[in-house]
Design brief:
The protein is an alpha/beta fold and 491 residues long. The chain has four domains: 58 residues, no CATH class; 158 residues, Response regulator (Rossmann fold, 3-Layer(aba) Sandwich), CATH 3.40.50; 160 residues, Glycogen Phosphorylase B (Rossmann fold); 64 residues, no CATH class. It has 21 helices and eleven strands. The strands form two sheets. A six-stranded parallel sheet has the order 2-1-3-4-5-6, with helices on both faces. α5 crosses α17 and α14 crosses α16. The chain is globular.
C-alpha cells in the first residue's frame, strides 16, 4: 500500500508530518491526538481482528469524550455471571456513566420453588417459561423508568427475543456479554438476532457462526477481575486457621474435578463449594458441609492458601479438557488477589497471562500432582509468579478495562445515535450557567458528572463533611419535603 502511494505521488511533505505510533498503543497516546479521524484500510481490517479492534478503540474513545451514558445492567438470577454483573456496573460507574444495576437475585427463590407445583418435567417447564416472561416484563418496566441509552445483559439474564425486540423498538441499544461455554449452553442462538452487540469469551469458529446469525457486532471480550474485591488481604490468625491450607479449591463439584483431585488428598487439600455430595473419598476434603461460599470468603481463602487449584469445569472429560479454550473469571481473580494458582492450560490463556511466567500451568492430572509438590516446596517461586500475575492483571485485565473496551466498540459504530439522544444535565453544566452565584459555588464542589437533579445533588452532598452552608441546608430541606409530600403524587 505504501509502495503504491509513493509511486503515484510525491508524499514527502505529508510524511514530514506523520508520526508512527509505538506499540503497545496506550490510552494516553490516543488521548493526546485530540479528535482523530480513523481511515481504515478495509482489506487489512478484514484480515486482522486486532486491527479492527484497534480502529474501534481509537474511534470509540474519541466518541466517548464528554459523553455520559445512561446504562442499565441486567443480572441473571444466580450463577457465576451474577457477581460479574455487579463488577460491570461498578466499573461503568467508575468510568463516569449513570448506571443502574437491575439485580434479579431476589427472584431466584421463586425459580427454585417451581418444582413445588408439579414433578412433571413438561408442566414444570411451562411454569418456568411463564416465570421468565414475568421477569421480562419487569425488565421492560425498568427500561421505561430508566430510559437508558444501553442495556447490558449478562449471561442467563431473563431476556427472551420478544423482550429484546421491544427494548429495541424503544430506541435502546442492546449488548450481551456471553460469559459461558457455547458448547454447553446454546440458548444464545435464540436471542443473538435481537442484540446490537454480542461479546463472548471464546473466539474462532464460534464467533464466525455468531456473526453469521445476526447483524450484531460480534467481538471477543475475556473475563477479568475487580481489584476492589479481588485483592491481597491481611488475615487474622483465626481466619488463617479456619481458611488456610497447603492446597485448596473453591468451586462446584464437576465430574472432572472429582476425578482429578483424588490423588491430591494426601497433600492437605481443602475443598470449598457446592455440588460435592456423592464425590466418594474426595468428599472428606469438603469444608462447611458443602455450603455456598461467599465472594468475600472466597477471596480470604485465596489469600490463606499456599497453592490454589484452578481446574476449568467439564462434564465430559476426566481431567483437563483438551479442547479447553476460554479463560474463567477465577484465573484473573486469583491473580488480582496476589494468590498463587495452578491453572489448566487453555488455548486462549497465553495472550492474557504468560504460562509459567505470570501463572503456573498444568496439562494433565499426573503433572498436577507433581507440580503441587514442587510449588509447596518452593515458596519463592510461588511468590514470584503470584506477583507477576497480579501486576499483569491490574495493568490489563480489570472490569474497568473490559467495560471501556465494550463502550468503545458501541460508540465506534453508534456514536451519532448516542450523541443525538437527549442528555441528562450535569452539575458541571448547571455550574457554568450559574456562574458566581451561591448555587454555582456549591455545584462546583461536586463531581462534574453528577446529575443536576434534586436526588443527584443531595447524594453528592451526603458525601461531604463539615457544617452545612445555607444553600446546602435549603437543598436538603427541599429533598426531604419532596420525599415526604410530593414524590408519591408525581409518580
Amino acid at each position: 500500500l505504501w509502495r503504491t502511494a509513493l509511486a503515484a505521488r510525491d508524499l514527502r511533505a505529508v510524511l514530514a508530518r506523520v508520526a508512527v505510533a509505538e506499540e503497545p498503543l496506550t490510552e494516553e497516546a490516543i488521548d493526546a491526538w485530540g479528535v482523530p479521524v480513523v481511515l481504515p484500510h478495509a482489506p487489512s481490517v478484514l484480515r486482522g481482528h486486532g486491527l479492527r479492534a484497534l480502529g474501534e478503540s481509537i474511534a470509540g474513545r474519541a466518541a466517548l469524550r464528554g459523553l455520559r451514558l445512561r446504562i442499565l445492567v441486567v443480572s441473571p438470577l444466580a450463577g457465576g455471571s451474577h457477581p460479574i454483573a455487579g463488577y460491570c456496573a461498578r466499573a461503568l460507574a467508575d468510568l463516569g456513566h449513570a448506571v443502574r444495576l437491575l439485580d434479579l437475585s431476589p427472584f431466584a427463590r421463586g425459580m427454585e420453588a417451581i418444582p413445588c407445583f408439579t414433578a412433571r418435567r413438561g408442566a414444570r417447564g411451562a411454569v418456568e417459561q411463564a416465570y421468565m416472561r414475568f421477569l421480562g416484563s419487569g425488565v421492560l418496566a425498568a427500561v421505561e423508568a430508566e430510559k437508558p441509552d444501553l442495556v447490558l445483559a449478562l449471561a442467563q439474564a431473563p431476556l427472551d427475543a420478544a423482550v429484546l425486540a421491544e427494548i429495541g423498538r424503544r430506541g435502546v441499544l442492546r449488548a450481551f456479554w456471553f460469559v459461558e461455554d457455547h458448547r454447553l449452553l446454546t440458548y444464545w442462538q435464540s436471542v443473538i438476532a435481537e442484540y446490537d452487540y454480542f461479546f463472548a469469551i471464546q473466539q474462532g469458529a464460534f464467533l464466525e457462526e455468531a456473526a453469521r446469525g445476526s447483524a450484531a457486532r460480534v467481538a471477543y471480550l475475556p473475563c477479568a477481575a475487580d481489584p476492589a474485591v479481588h485483592r491481597p488481604l491481611a488475615l487474622t490468625a483465626a481466619e488463617r486457621a479456619e481458611l488456610g491450607a497447603p492446597l485448596a479449591f473453591v468451586g462446584a463439584g464437576y465430574r472432572n474435578r472429582r476425578i482429578a483431585f483424588r490423588p491430591l488428598l494426601d497433600l492437605g487439600l481443602k475443598i470449598w463449594g457446592t455440588e460435592w455430595a456423592g464425590a466418594g473419598q474426595v468428599e472428606a476434603a469438603v469444608q462447611r458441609d458443602g455450603a455456598r461460599i461467599s465472594t468475600e470468603d472466597a477471596v480470604r481463602i485465596f489469600n490463606a492458601t499456599r497453592v490454589n487449584l484452578n481446574l476449568h469445569s467439564s462434564t465430559y472429560v476426566d481431567g483437563v479438557d483438551p479442547r479447553g479454550d476460554f479463560v474463567n473469571p477465577r484465573t484473573f481473580e486469583l491473580a488480582a488477589a496476589g494468590a498463587f494458582q495452578l491453572v489448566d492450560r487453555r488455548a486462549l490463556l497465553p495472550p492474557l497471562l504468560r504460562p509459567d511466567q505470570e501463572v503456573a500451568t498444568f496439562t494433565d492430572a499426573a503433572e498436577l500432582h507433581d507440580l503441587v509438590r514442587h510449588y509447596l516446596a518452593h515458596p519463592e517461586e510461588r511468590a514470584w509468579l503470584a506477583a507477576a500475575g497480579r501486576s499483569r492483571v491490574l495493568a490489563e485485565h480489570t472490569y474497568r478495562q473490559r467495560m471501556q473496551r465494550l463502550l468503545e466498540t458501541v460508540a465506534a459504530r453508534d456514536h451519532e445515535r448516542l450523541g443525538s439522544r437527549p442528555r441528562e444535565e450535569t452539575v458541571d453544566d448547571a455550574a457554568e450557567r450559574e456562574g458566581d452565584t451561591p448555587l454555582g459555588a456549591l455545584l462546583r464542589r461536586l463531581a462534574p458528572a453528577t446529575p443536576f437533579t434534586l436526588d443527584g445533588v443531595v447524594q453528592g452532598l451526603l458525601h461531604r463533611t463539615g457544617d452545612l452552608s445555607d444553600p446546602e441546608a435549603i437543598l436538603l430541606f427541599l429533598h426531604q419535603f419532596d420525599e415526604l409530600y410530593v414524590r408519591e403524587q408525581r409518580a
